Every structure is written in C-alpha cells, then in structure tokens.
Amino acid sequence: MKPTFYVTTPIYYVNDVPHIGHAYTTVAGDVLARYKRLMGYDVYFLTGSDEHGQKVEKAAITAGETPLELADRVVKRFQALWERLGISNNDFIRTTQERHKNGVSRIFKDLLDKGDIYLGEYEDWYCTPCETFWTETQLIEGRCPDCNRPVEKLKEESYFFRMSKYQEQLLAHIEANLDFIQPKSKRNEILSFIKEGLRDLSVSRTTFSWGIPVPGNDRHIIYVWFDALTNYITALGYPDETGNYGRYWPVDVHLIGKDILRFHAIYWPTFLMAAGLPLPKKVFAHGWWTVEGQKMSKSLQNVVEPNMLIDKYGVDAVRYFLLREVPFGLDGDFSHTALVQRINSDLANDIGNLLSRSTAMAVKYFDGLLHVAVELTETDRTLKLKTEEMVTIVDKFIDEMAFSKALQAIWEVISAGNKYIDETAPWTLAKDPANSGRLATVMYCLLESQRITHCLLSAFLPATSEKALASLGWNEEVSKEGLAWGGLKAGTTITKAEALFPRMEE
Ligand code: MSP
Questions:
Q1: Predicted model pTM
Q2: Domain ranges in the chain?
Q3: Which DSSP state fits 495?
Q4: pLDDT tens, 156-188?
Q5: Distance from C-alpha of 1 to C-alpha of 13, rounded to nearest angstrom
Q6: 336-483: which CATH topology?
Q7: Is the CB of 46 under 6 A from ligand 1?
Q8: How far is the CA of 10 from the centre of ligand 1 (A)?
Q9: pLDDT reported for residue 298
Q10: Cα–Cα nearest to 171, from 29, 319, 317, 273
Q11: 228 CB within 6 A, ligand 1
C-alpha cells in the first residue's frame, strides 16, 4: 500500500475575491501535492471556502444578496482561478455543505456532552473583520491588535470551550514535537503566548444568524473559527472512520499564513484534544506579501489580482515567482520588475535556452535520434552526479517546505547543463565524424540531465515540464523511479523545443 500524504490550505473567506496571498498558499500546497504524488504517495490535497460568519453576512447585505448567493458567486471565482493555476486539489470543501455542517454539529455536541463546552456569559471587545474577541489589555490604543481597526464592546450569553483545561497538554505536545509548528520563530511566539495563560474560548454568537446553530439551542450560532477549522476533518467524512478520515487523518501539514497561526496552533489542537482526535503532524505558517513595498489592501487599491498576472506573464511564471522569490516562512515583496527579471534570467535564459539549444543540437547532429552513452568522461560524470544529487537535495528541501531552496538546487543543475555545453563544445565535435560516439554521449548526458530536472520541475511548473518532457521524448508518467539516471533509452526521438518562456520587456 502507498504511504498517504494529506495537505491542506486555509479555506478562503468568500467576502473577498482571490488575490496573490490566496494564490500563494494554494500554489505551495499544489507543489507539495504534486511532488508527493510523483514520489509515490497516496495524496489528498484539500482547499475550499469559509462561507459562514458575520463578515460574510455583512458583505452579503452590502451587496444586496443572501449570504449563500454571495458565496455561490464568489466561490466560482476561487474555483476558476485554481483551475487556471493548475491546482490539483482532490476536493474543495464549502462550509455551507451538508457534510460539513453535520460534522461540525457532531463535534460541538460531543464536546457539550463531555462538559468541555458550557454555557456562560461574555463581555469583551470584538473585532468583526477578524471575528475575534480581545481583552482590554490586548487592545493597542483601543484598537484591534491584529488589524488596527476599531473594536466594539459586546456582551452576550455564550458557549465557552474549556481551552484552559488543555493548556499544559498543548505545551507538552509542542515541546515534545519540534516540527509541530514551523518555522521555528513562529513556534516560539506560540509557546510564549500559551505560557501567558489560555482563557476559555467563546465558541458561539447570538448577534447574527449566518452559520451553524448550536445543537439544542438555535439562538446560538457556532463561532466561525470553530466551524471553519473543522473543515479539515469534515472534508474527509468525519466522523465516519471507514473512508477518507480513517485513511488520511492526521494531516501531514496545514499550510497557512502567519496571521492565522494562533487559530491553527492553539484553538484547533485543543479542540481536537477535547474530542479525543489525533493532532496535525505539522502546521506551517508562511509570510505575507507586500506589493511594491506597501501593504496590500483594498483601500490602497494595490491588490494584485492573479488572473491579471497569468494573462500577462503565464501560469508557470507566476507559480515560479511566488515560490522562488521569497523563502517560504518569510515576508516578501511583489513587484512587476522583480517578476520580469526572474522570467528573463531564470526562465527564458537559463532553463528555456538550455532546452532549446540541446534539443536543436540533437535534431541537427542526429536527426533527433538518441544514441546510448558510450563511456563517460570526468565532465560527463560530474553532470550526472550533480543531477543525481539534486534529486536527494530537493527531497530534503521540500520536506522542510524550503521551496525556494529546492528551486535553487534545480537551477544549479540547469547552470551546470549550460556550462557542460560550453565545455564539451558539441559544435566542434560535430565537425569530425570520428567523434560521433563522443558527440552521442554528450547529447545523451545533456538531455538525460534535463529529463530528470523536468520530472522534478513538474511539481512546480506542470505545463512547462509537460512540453519539455514531450520534446525530450519522455512519454511516461513522472515517478520516483523515473528520477534515476538512465531513463532515456537509445532510439528515443527528440524534437526541437519551442521557447518555453518568451522574454519580456523590462
Ligand atoms: N477563512 C480564514 C481561514 C480559515 S482556515 C480554517 C481566512 N481566510 S482569508 O481568506 O482571509 O485568508 C486566507 C489566507 O490568505 C491566510 O492564510 C492569509 O495568511 C493569506 N493571505 C492574505 N493576505 C496575504 C498576503 N498579503 N500575503 C500572503 N498571504 C496572505 O483567514
């Protein structure tokens, strides 16, 4: 049986249309999913939409729609974008689906029955955009400490989750599992937050109606984060153990942005502990994108719309840029200049040129027919070794979510390929028929190195790699076995590759 791998993105709020922040996590999840599939895992990749709560209700009122009409309309935009971006999710969960609502009610009821959720009264400051309560001391100059917007005082009867009860158990878990929260700096933030003491958490609201009612008391709506976080198991059919839930839970990694780490590293694990369910293996928080040095916001009108980027630069250029430009886990800045530079140097020049030069020579010197490599010289062996090492290094980096390092490691082999052409000078060899054995070996090494490179790259740049592999005469499905040197067989037909990436005006 194949080992399983379950990866999730956050479920996106439908009161906003998709932007590069959303695309970022989803592309990262896709790379992980594609890579693990190619390495032989049985992968489940989940994304979806967060459709309940006051924020969505308010947006619907403003738009003159029902919340569900709004959700139906906006969710299509997310789904269409994922399709364009080549996202290979296995499922898309909407929190308005029955499968989700049933699962949430069930888990809420279990915790009520167990006494870990109880009825009490709440009075505190509430930030509607963040759907979060704050104490007086947490406010910064009377405003929300997360988004700096005004807060309002709310007093309501509320159900509470006994989060305080799980404080020590959670601390012990985080301390015993170094990888549980990543990157490390974020793990430390969470540890110190917990050490300050966890209060019980208000998990219901009575001030609006758009959500899942509390079982047995429908004056109360289940808190949107309790509702949303549970998507990671309701999508697997929880509580039914026999299907996907039994197969894929606990999740291998929840990919999220740093702003929602507390929900994933504190609330969610304690909910699961209370329900007696296994915890996620890893929660990874990535950084935020600014745009041309500024915070991305509707009011600044600088929100970067992924469809526009795809129209202008192409899907794979966008995917590449997002993961290459900034180490995953750190903040980064989006700029058109930086994107164009990456396209011209890394994509058009390095990888595109290498493939078109190599395949053009194979066609010119051997009519596209691939011959066996006779005897490898030191130079050939160096290229072969570098290619083989790349496979191991990339695996390690992907396990660490170090996508930009993985791409750098791949690009080292691409540079090595370009250098190899200069060193072996095939055009000189081609002048003398006596060198044809040597020339065939050079062509083999050059093309085989790129075949392996593009098999790996298929996780990052699926459309590009498909074209590249086709011109390299590789029609097999990419697989772990296919990453071994020697896959290309004599007699394979190589065709001249078109430019993979056109150069852009700076
Ligand atoms: N609905 C919640 C998540 C629930 S998960 C159980 C939510 N939705 S969101 O649509 O507001 O944001 C989703 C993700 O987009 C978050 O991970 C957030 O970090 C990410 N980003 C929003 N703006 C971003 C940037 N400018 N840069 C990078 N990621 C950003 O939160």
A1: 0.94
A2: 336-483
A3: -
A4: 899 999 999 999 999 999 999 999 999 999 999
A5: 36
A6: Isoleucyl-tRNA Synthetase; Domain 1 (1.10.730)
A7: no
A8: 7
A9: 82
A10: 273
A11: yes
